[in-house]
């Protein structure tokens, strides 16, 4: 550097050379204050020096930090997360205040208000909310309820002249009826009328009230029926559990679906499972599920209550037991028929009201009923004599009367007739056993006579041929009167001696009793 040029640029520099005041390596113009070693090691002095440096370097930050968040006594400012949350809360407060001002400006005195509640950002840990920060839903206007409670005076009206309003006023009653809809059952949907001044007339309200009560009772009935009864082509939860257990145990491989429905039962098709030690499971099975509803069994207790096999167990006070007894009755009757060699389904197992039998048919296709199949004259004649032979076997060997024998309960499979549905079958000693037999004979005789079988006997001749009785009556009325007399004789003997009539004589002699 040229010392001459520097001196010329600063003529008023002072007594010393000019380069000494400008050069950083020059001697300082002021002398520093000396301090002791103890003062240098003092923490208080270090904090003061640090604060002076911060004030000199960042004056704006210090001014902003002098707010209530930094100087609070109970606030820990050593955590950066806490500082960030505090700053965010302050921003959210300002944002919410701005929303409230905009809300108040837009609404004004309007009856329909707009709320920005969903856009607020108040944090859950913000406990310093002001008094005006109230949820708008808690203070919204309810059109069903008056702002101030109004009382109807004893005289029944308020106002005078044209402004008179009675307790029967259409508007007042309409609003009261609308408010009363809140007392309906929760399942009855009344809709949302918030913001609308609804008025329901007494006629409409009474109709809605009656409908709500009826729907509530109907819902209860449907729920009970669904839980405790077997519906059409469906099963209740308890029955479904029984079927699941049969499949899980390996007895059944799978249940394919429903193949038949009736008044008292539903029949499903299933494939047989593994062969057990004591039972042989057929390849195809029929699952007969007796409906657990009581409607179809109200008038059918006569088939059970007078049957000596179930008489002691029958109780009309507990009608649900009749259903299981009905399934058990069919199982025992099928077992008798099977032992006698009568073509019928083979019983596999009985679980409560679910009866598993062999399937009469092939490849999930059930055998047709006798009423649905078309037979030639030779097959029709063959079927007639087969049924006549089965009725005699059923009466004499099995000691049973079908009691519902018709073309609807006979199947045609493999060139022969199969008997099904024997749950209502009773013994001839039943108080109405002979009446049931005569009814069966009438159904069979009429069907085959219409089918063109010339050899078909009439109902009276068929009755004598099956039962072995020799009732000679010229007309049907006298014939039925003799049948009732025989039944009465057997019933009196049972009541007097407690013994059942074993059979009826075939030659007009007095009946033979078991001693």
UniProtKB/TrEMBL annotation:
Please describe the quaternary structure of this protein: Interacts with CASP10. Interacts with IRF3; RIOK3 probably mediates the interaction of TBK1 with IRF3. Associated with 40S pre-ribosomal particles.
Q: List the Pfam families.
A: RIO1
Give all residue intervals belonging to the RIO kinase domain.
224-468
Q: Which GO terms describe its molecular function?
A: ATP binding; metal ion binding; protein serine/threonine kinase activity
Family of the protein in this entry: Belongs to the protein kinase superfamily. RIO-type Ser/Thr kinase family.
Q: Which GO terms describe its biological process?
A: defense response to virus; innate immune response; ribosome biogenesis
Q: Can you say where in the cell this protein is located?
A: Cytoplasm
Designated name of the protein: Serine/threonine-protein kinase RIO3
Keywords in alphabetical order: Antiviral defense, ATP-binding, Cytoplasm, Immunity, Innate immunity, Kinase, Magnesium, Metal-binding, Nucleotide-binding, Phosphoprotein, Ribosome biogenesis, Serine/threonine-protein kinase, Transferase
Say which domain of life the source belongs to. Eukaryota
Its gene?
Riok3
Q: Which GO terms describe its cellular component?
A: cytoplasm
What Gene3D superfamilies does this protein's entry cite?
Phosphorylase Kinase, domain 1, Transferase(Phosphotransferase) domain 1
Q: Does the keyword RNA-binding apply?
A: no
Cofactor(s) needed for function = Mg(2+)
Where are the compositionally biased (Low complexity) regions?
1-18
Q: Which reaction does it catalyse?
A: L-seryl-[protein] + ATP = O-phospho-L-seryl-[protein] + ADP + H(+); L-threonyl-[protein] + ATP = O-phospho-L-threonyl-[protein] + ADP + H(+)
Mainly resides where?
cytoplasm
Q: What class of enzyme is it?
A: transferase
Question: Which E.C. number(s) belong to this protein?
Answer: 2.7.11.1
Q: Write out the ranges of the annotated region (Disordered).
A: 1-20, 124-161, 496-515
InterPro entries the UniProt entry points to: Kinase-like_dom_sf (IPR011009), RIO-type_Ser/Thr_kinase (IPR051272), RIO_dom (IPR018934), RIO_kinase (IPR000687), RIO_kinase_CS (IPR018935), Ser/Thr_kinase_Rio3 (IPR017406)
Give the Basic and acidic residues compositional bias ranges. 137-148
Organism from which the protein derives = Leiothrix lutea
């Amino acid at each position: 550097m040229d010392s001459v040029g520097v001196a010329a640029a600063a003529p008023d520099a002072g007594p010393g050379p000019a380069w000494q005041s400008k050069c950083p390596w020059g001697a300082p113009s002021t002398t520093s204050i000396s301090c002791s070693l103890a003062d240098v090691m003092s923490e208080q002095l270090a904090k003061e020096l640090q604060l002076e440096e911060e004030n000199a370097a960042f004056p704006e930050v210090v001014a902003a930090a002098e707010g209530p968040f930094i100087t609070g006594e109970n606030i820990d400012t050593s955590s950066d997360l806490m500082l960030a949350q505090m700053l965010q809360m302050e921003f959210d407060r300002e944002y919410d205040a701005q929303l409230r001002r905009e809300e108040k400006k837009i609404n004004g005195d309007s009856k329909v208000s707009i709320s920005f509640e969903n856009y607020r950002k108040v944090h859950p840990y913000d406990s310093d909310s002001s008094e005006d920060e109230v949820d708008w839903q808690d203070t919204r206007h309810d059109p069903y309820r008056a702002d101030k409670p109004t009382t109807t005076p004893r005289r029944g009206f308020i106002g005078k002249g044209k402004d008179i309003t009675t307790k029967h006023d259409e508007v007042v009653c309409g609003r009261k009826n609308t408010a009363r809809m809140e007392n309906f059952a929760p399942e009855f949907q009344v809709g949302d009328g918030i913001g609308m001044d609804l008025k329901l007339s007494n006629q409409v309200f009474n109709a809605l009230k009656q409908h709500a009560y009826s729907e509530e009772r109907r819902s209860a009935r449907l729920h009970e029926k669904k839980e405790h009864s077997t519906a059409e082509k469906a099963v209740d939860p308890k029955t479904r559990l029984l079927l699941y257990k049969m499949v899980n145990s390996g007895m059944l491989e799978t249940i394919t679906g429903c193949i038949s429905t009736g008044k008292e039962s539903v029949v499903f098709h299933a494939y047989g499972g593994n062969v057990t030690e004591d039972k042989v499971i057929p390849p195809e099975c029929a699952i007969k599920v007796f409906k657990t509803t009581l409607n179809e069994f109200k008038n059918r207790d006569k088939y059970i209550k007078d049957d000596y096999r179930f008489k002691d167990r029958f109780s009309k006070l507990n009608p649900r037991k009749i259903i299981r007894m009905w399934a058990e009755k069919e199982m025992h009757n099928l077992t008798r028929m099977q032992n006698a060699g009568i073509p019928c389904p083979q019983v596999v197992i009985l679980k409560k009201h679910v009866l598993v039998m062999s399937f009469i048919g092939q490849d999930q296709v059930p055998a047709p009923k006798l009423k649905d199949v078309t037979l030639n004259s030779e097959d029709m004649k063959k079927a007639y004599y087969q049924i006549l032979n089965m009725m005699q076997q059923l009466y004499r060997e099995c000691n049973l009367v079908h009691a519902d024998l018709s073309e609807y309960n006979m199947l045609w499979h493999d060139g022969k007739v199969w008997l099904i549905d024997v749950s209502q079958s009773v013994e001839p000693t039943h108080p109405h056993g002979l009446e049931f037999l005569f009814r069966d004979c009438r159904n069979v005789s009429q069907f085959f006579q219409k089918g063109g079988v010339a050899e078909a006997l009439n109902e009276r001749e068929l009755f004598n041929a099956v039962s072995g009785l020799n009732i000679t009556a010229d007309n049907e009325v006298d014939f039925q009167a003799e049948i009732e007399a025989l039944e009465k004789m057997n019933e009196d003997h049972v009541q007097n001696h407690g013994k059942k009539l074993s059979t009826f004589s075939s030659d007009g002699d007095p009946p033979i009793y078991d001693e």
